[in-house]
């Protein structure tokens, strides 16, 4: 796959002018629950590395899509414990006073917000641990 991408980039006049060598794969570095970390190596004229890196990454993702290879997307489901009858009767009396905001709805919103915060924190920690040239 990387060899094919290298050939395509070599054919592109704008991109090949910035390359000093071939785009080379250094293999899969790590498999994660929702990612495959690959290392790709290439030499460029100073200042061209960002443009070429972005294009290489885009073409790798496109090649995976063309081959039907998909990676899992993180999905969080929050299950709330069932409430006792006394809590449900309290909720019914409160819902009569304030029909638009029930206790159950507030709990769901708080749980969803907590799950989202945890997911974002995990993603930030993972991205902070990745190297510059890893995908």
Structural topology:
Elements: H1 2-11, H2 13-16, E1 24-31, E2 36-41, H3 49-66, H4 85-97, H5 103-129
Antiparallel strand pairs: 1-2
Keywords:
about 140 residues, 2 domains, two-stranded antiparallel sheet, 5 helices, about 10% strand, disordered C terminus
Instruction: Fill in the CATH topology of the largest domain.
Output: Alpha-Beta Plaits
From the N-terminal CA to the C-terminal CA, the straight-line distance is 14 Å
**What spatial form do the alpha-carbon principal axes imply?**
elongated
Helix content: 40-55%
Q: State the CATH architecture of the largest domain.
A: 2-Layer Sandwich
Query: What is the count of β-strands?
Result: 2
Radius of gyration: 24 Å
How many structural domains are formed by the residues? 2
* Run of helices and strands: HHEEHHH
Structure description:
- This protein is mainly alpha-helical.
- It folds into two domains: 2-73, Alpha-Beta Plaits (2-Layer Sandwich), CATH 3.30.70; 74-135.
- It is built from five helices and two strands; from the N terminus they run H-H-E-E-H-H-H.
- It has a two-stranded antiparallel sheet.
- Strand 1 (24-31) and strand 2 (36-41) form a beta hairpin.
């Amino acid at each position: 796959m990387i060899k094919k991408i290298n050939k395509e980039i070599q054919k592109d006049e704008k991109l090949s002018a910035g390359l000093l060598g071939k785009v080379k794969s250094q293999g899969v570095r790590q498999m994660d629950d929702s990612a495959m970390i690959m290392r790709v190596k290439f030499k460029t004229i100073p200042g061209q590395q960002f443009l070429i890196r972005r294009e290489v990454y885009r073409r790798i993702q496109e090649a995976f899509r063309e081959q039907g290879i998909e990676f899992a997307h993180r999905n969080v489901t929050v299950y709330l414990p069932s409430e006792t009858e006394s809590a449900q009767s309290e909720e019914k009396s409160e819902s009569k006073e304030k029909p638009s905001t029930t206790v159950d709805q507030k709990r769901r919103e708080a749980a969803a917000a907590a799950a989202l915060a945890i997911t974002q924190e995990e993603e930030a920690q993972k991205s902070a641990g990745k190297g510059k040239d890893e995908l």
